Amino acid sequence: NMIKVPLPFTLPKKKPKCPQIEQRSQRRKYMTLVAALSGLDGVVMFADTEETVAGYSKRIVEKLSVYDLPNMPFRFAIGGATTNAPYVDMLQSEIASTLSSINRYDLQEITNTLASTLTDFYSKHVWPRTDKPEMEYLVTVQPLPDGDPKIFHISETAINILPSPHFPVTTTHNKSIGLGGYLADYLFKSILGGSESMAQLAAAAVYI
Fold first, then answer.
1. Which of 44, 109, 112, 119 is the most buried (most CB within 10 A)?
2. Given phi > 0 = left and psi -120 to 50 = alpha, else beta, which region is 109?
3. pTM of the predicted protein model
4. What is the DSSP code (8-state) at residue 153?
5. Alpha-carbon distance 165 to 155, whole Å?
6. CA atoms of 186 and 35, how far apart (whole Å)
7. Residue 44: Cβ-neighbour burial (10 angstroms; 0-12, 13-18, 19+)
8. pLDDT tens-digit profile of 131-190?
9. What stretch of H or E contains 196?
């Protein structure tokens, strides 16, 4: 099951207009922005809702999926950036299925299981192609009932877990992907230090 209402560690970025949400098209540019911000009290994930089709047409789509399944040791949220929407949706479904099959919260087990899924998917669907789609994901995993959420950054088959804000402030606690990712990361480094409350993280998300 997938719920549309964000969990405490997620926050979709709101737009002034709210047209009817449509399914993703088969041809589109890199998703504009998906980001995860980490503070002392938790994580805020957000994404824009605009999609550019064929270089000029725009529509509104959902770019974050939140999973809070029964009898699970953790809940998770996924957001992806891509050059090929069907592929990113297909791999996101594989990632969600993989996470849902894990029966304990263990970061090493989660990482190893995801790596196996990613390698299998890329071997079958991406690497044999000449026009390889580019895909990148942010996944936030929170142990239940109220554990410290962790942010996973997935780029092809590489998986990195961002350090928590309890690490030195020189480390990166936030991550952005998509066309606006570089600018967003620069702005986050300028305005966030890692000790922010959830309200401050939400304000930063709205600002960006």
1. 44
2. alpha
3. 0.78
4. E
5. 22
6. 12
7. buried
8. 888 899 999 999 999 899 999 999 999 999 998 765 555 456 889 998 888 888 888 888
9. none
